[in-house]
Amino acid sequence: MNTKTIEDVRQPETIGKKQAARQSVPFRYRMSLQESLLFVLVIGLALGMIFPFYWMVNISLQTREEIITLPLKWLPLSFVWENYPRAWTIGKMGLYTQNSITVALAHVLLQVSTCTLAAYAFARLHFPGKNPLFILLLATNMIPWPVTIIPSFILIKSIPLVGGNDILGAGGTGLLNTLWSIILPGAVNVIGIFFLRQFLLNLPTELEDAARVDGCNEFGVLWYIIVPICVPGMATFALLSFETSWNSFIWPLIMLSRQAIFTLPVGLRAFYDAGAAGDNFIDYGPLMAASVLFILPVLLIFLAAQRVFVQGIALSGIKG
Hints:
By secondary structure, the chain is mainly alpha-helical. The chain has helices at residues 2-60, 64-68, 83-89, 93-124, 130-140, 149-157, 180-183, 190-201, 206-213, 218-229, 231-247, 250-255, 264-278, 284-315. It folds into two domains: 2-60; 84-315, MetI-like fold (Orthogonal Bundle).
């Protein structure tokens, strides 16, 4: 009697669960289909972004005859690793790499230092006109960069007592054709100030207040309290600064005309022009090998520091 009663009680529960499972199948199927389509879309976009890099490596390992022969070769018939030493020697990639590293590291050092100081002032200090001044600073970033090229060129050329100039900045070339003409205009970055300011706004102020109570001045608070806490944000900005400087092409192309101080992007362009001016055929094998060598440092730095990069982006969320 008791067993039959228990079965009668369990039977409606089992039927209800089966019916609920059947009703949920179409919904689950629709969700699975949507996720599959999204997955396919993401894979397609990823392949579209990866393909240029794959093709660059593929061409860098082919012979000159394979490159110009149709149909196109999706894989090298013979892996020509000699293109890389040729790019390094004939293309002078070693010299250009040294110049690019010098400029990029100088930009990272200057921008991280100046932007940290400015961001600390805008985020933590109180002074008259702080908010209007910050808005004005952000407004300067809305000026189209091509508009500033000619004034910046004249400014670099007219620096007094440098490059044969007199005290009024006339008579010489100033800092033209020097690496300083690339480094100094990039000493401050408005986006970097904004980025680090947002990072600081998300940090508590209790440690700073305790340091001030103990008699620490503002520079002491910045150096002993703020900088250690801001390492993820500063590292993220340093990586972005290095990448921007490493990839810069237009400004170095305008400022530099001596091949000995070319950076890598300008050097790649010179390598291309030299091939076009020779036998009217560009040797794309060494050129693509030089391009691979060009992107390799930034790629390795990002892979090594991606955890800090993601952490810095996450902690610098926009605050109203």
